[in-house]
Specification:
- This is Tubby C-terminal domain-containing protein.
- Pfam families: Tub.
- Helices cover 10% and strands 40% of the residues.
- By secondary structure, the protein is mainly beta.
- It has one domain: Tubby Protein, Chain A.
- The strands form two sheets. A twelve-stranded antiparallel barrel has the order 1-2-3-4-5-6-7-8-9-12-13-14. It has a two-stranded antiparallel sheet with strand order 10-11.
- The radius of gyration is 23 Å and the shape is globular.
Length: 230
């Protein structure tokens, strides 16, 4: 190699490597909850009584608009729960948005799109720390959304015990009342928060979710909190 070639080779090392832009390819990153805006949802529970008995109705709303509805025939229902678009929830409907399937004594749930045998959207598992019902509830959520930017597995954040022997979670000064339904779903790897569910009145929950967490998945989690006996 000549002296001139050596200088040329040495100079090339300081130059940045340039790559041509590839049209049609976008780099997708996982959602960063620290900077991603959260959407507020409201989940309302109401009751009706007729000759068929008492029914419990649930609706999830965003900005006052009803997105999905569901109806329970009984408090201990194990029958699949149809989830309807909008405000009308009917078991006879053949055009539902999803079904929430209950299993293992109503502590395991599977949310399926369109019908009972449709694609699985999420699964939800309820339990208690060390299986002790006197200790806080634990949720494990698995998402099956195609090309999801949300981690496939989320867990509930464990509360801390105060000096007054109370279990508390940090909801960043948001309104709430004490309840076993108060949960924060996080990425287990880095504890970043993706979904925060708070009880704000006797029959109302509020949920703050990252923008890419679908409202249907939010509703599925909220319904499981009502249906699960633990």
């Amino acid at each position: 190699m000549t002296e001139k070639q050596e200088e040329s080779s040495s100079g090339d090392k300081t130059k940045p490597t340039l790559f041509p832009q590839i049209v049609g390819i976008r780099v997708r990153k996982r959602v960063d909850p620290a900077v991603s805006p959260k959407i507020l949802y409201t989940i309302k529970r109401t009751f009706t009584t007729s000759i068929r008995g008492r029914r419990t109705h649930y609706q999830i709303l965003k900005d006052g608009q009803i997105l999905y509805s569901a109806k329970l025939k009984s408090k201990r229902q194990s029958e699949p729960i149809p989830i309807s678009n909008g405000s009308d929830a009917h078991y006879s409907s053949t055009n539902n948005a999803a079904y929430l399937l209950c299993g293992d004594g109503r502590i395991e749930f599977s949310l399926r799109a369109k019908d009972q045998y449709g694609p699985e959207v999420i699964t939800i598992q309820h339990s208690h720390i060390q299986n002790d019902k006197h200790l806080p509830k634990t949720l494990k959520v698995t998402l099956f959304l195609k090309d999801s930017l949300i981690p496939h597995k989320l867990i509930s954040k464990q509360p801390q015990m105060t000096d007054d022997m109370e279990w508390v979670l940090d909801f960043h000064n948001k309104e709430l009342i004490p309840s076993t339904k108060n949960i924060i779903l996080i990425n287990e790897e880095n504890t970043l928060e993706y979904l925060l569910v708070r009880k704000v009145s006797k029959d109302t929950l509020e949920a703050d979710a990252v923008s890419l967490f679908s409202p249907l998945a939010v509703f599925g989690v909220a319904l499981s909190l009502y249906v699960a006996p633990v």
